[in-house]
Fold this sequence. Notes:
Layout: H1 4-27, H2 36-40
InterPro entries: Cyt_oxidase_maturation_cbb3 (IPR004714)
Protein name: Cbb3-type cytochrome oxidase maturation protein
Pfam families: FixS (PF03597)
Amino acid sequence: MTILLLLVPISLVLLGLAIWAFVWAVRRGQFDDLDTPPLDILREDTDGPRPLSAQDGGTANGNNTPDKGRLDECGRDKGHTDAR
């Protein structure tokens, strides 16, 4: 029963911190617009497809030389070939 003398004040302090964090978030505008951010990812790009350039993984001079130092989607060097 004496443990309640410790647990009740600790729980009241934690409750006060939670209320303070909620009030702080409301004042900072964290809950102002909850609908638009999830919908932003569904919008299509309006500028159309980008042309393939040297920075996007193509070759700058137009031939089929491997891109040394460039990484693919798995993090491997694009100029590297697996010997499996």
